[in-house]
Amino acid sequence: MDGKGRALDNIFVERFFRTLKYENIYLNEYETPKSLRRGLNQYIKFYNEQRLHGSLGYRCPVDFYHQDLAQIALLSIGAILLGYSYAHEWYGILESEVQYWGYLSEALGLILLILILPRFKGVILTKVILFIGLIINIPPIILWFIFHGSIDSRDKT
């Protein structure tokens, strides 16, 4: 981990140590090694369970990791199928995550649509909807439901 070109290997540990020093050690005057050990254990427990973390959307780790599985599934599926901008608005994904995963979620959404939609009627309609979604930057799944729903209603009459 200390080899040449490995400057970023320890970045997470270094960041934690900086936080530990500024939020605990510099604020407390530990007089004995025993009190220091007790204080560090308490702070690490607080850090891992109760402290709000920016990388978790300013939620504490316990709340973040014990979310409903359904909410996590909706977040994942929503980010892929509805497009990242809608998932950001509806589920509160961090802006940095939106930028990072944006194109990937759109690509995965399009791949899913390409795989799923041909099973329904109108392969040409599917391609047109995908193209329109790309041109006007509306999530293709929403366009598909709009167009497919109107076509189904015409078929029934």
Automatic annotation (TrEMBL):
It comes from the Bacteria. GO terms for biological process: DNA integration. Keywords: Membrane, Transmembrane, Transmembrane helix. The keyword Cell cycle does not apply. Signal peptide: none annotated. The chain crosses the membrane at residues 69-88, 100-117, 124-147. Pfam families: rve_3 (PF13683). The keyword Plastid does not apply. Residues 4-61 form the Integrase catalytic domain. InterPro entries: Integrase_cat-core, RNaseH-like_sf, Transposase_IS3/IS150/IS904. This is Ribonuclease H-like domain. It comes from Syntrophomonas zehnderi OL-4.
